[in-house]
Amino acid sequence: MLGFLRKKSAPIAAPLVSSTGKPPRFPITQNEIARQVHIFYAYVQADHELSDVLNRYIEDWNAHEKKLRAFWAKVLLHEPGYEGAMNRAHDGVAELSPDLLERWLEHFHDAAHEVLPADSADEWVRIARQLGKSVMANAPTPVQGAET
Predict the structure, then answer these.
(1) pLDDT tens digits, one per residue of 22-37
(2) pTM for the whole thing?
(3) CA 120, CA 95: separation in Å to the nearest integer?
(4) For the chain, what is the domain count?
(5) Residue 120: helix, strand or coil by DSSP?
(6) Which residue has the higher pLDDT, 26 or 126?
(7) CATH of the domain at 72
(8) Which of the 8 DSSP states describes residue 5?
(9) Distance from chain centroid for Cα 127
(10) Which ranges in the chain belong to alpha helices (H)?
(11) What's the half-sphere exposure (Cβ side, CA atoms, 13 Å) at 70?
(12) Across all residues in the chain, what is the average pLDDT?
């Protein structure tokens, strides 16, 4: 873990409903989402195996973080803003593997637990794991015997 990121914030009351009128999936705020995403990507960038792969696809980490904050706000808070297609966004990542996903989820878990109480962090990690499995299920599988 990155030492400068260890300080856990005081719990922040989550809104009872989002701007769409729907309740969040669990108690969480936009600020907590932003903090978790920032810490998570600091971990990812410090992990040479993950960063070596992702640096081939992500040109601007700040823009990527902004997009992911919007994605998680849509998933967790039902907020408008993210217009992408998660599975299609990962279609061209040839290096996707169960091992790489597990490594990603370990960092996600650690970052979530730095920002949120354990029950909220565990729920967010559960959702992230489901989404990761969806990405893996839709990932193209290499053709056996094909020459590269």
Answers:
(1) 777 788 899 999 999 9
(2) 0.77
(3) 30
(4) 1
(5) helix
(6) 126
(7) 1.10.490.10
(8) G
(9) 10
(10) 30-46, 48-54, 61-77, 86-89, 98-115, 118-138
(11) 13
(12) 80
- Asked if residue 132 is part of any domain, the answer here is yes
Nearest to 36 by CA among 92, 93, 99, 108: 108
Predicted confidence band of residue 4 (pLDDT cuts 50, 70, 90): very low
Exposure string over 30-67, b if 16+ CB within 10 A, otherwise e: bebbbbbbbbbbbbbeebeebbebbeeebeeeeeebeb
- The parent domain of residue 77 ranges over 23-138
Tokens of 68: 């992911």
The answer to whether 79 and 20 are in contact (CB under 8 A) is yes
Better pLDDT: 27 or 114: 114
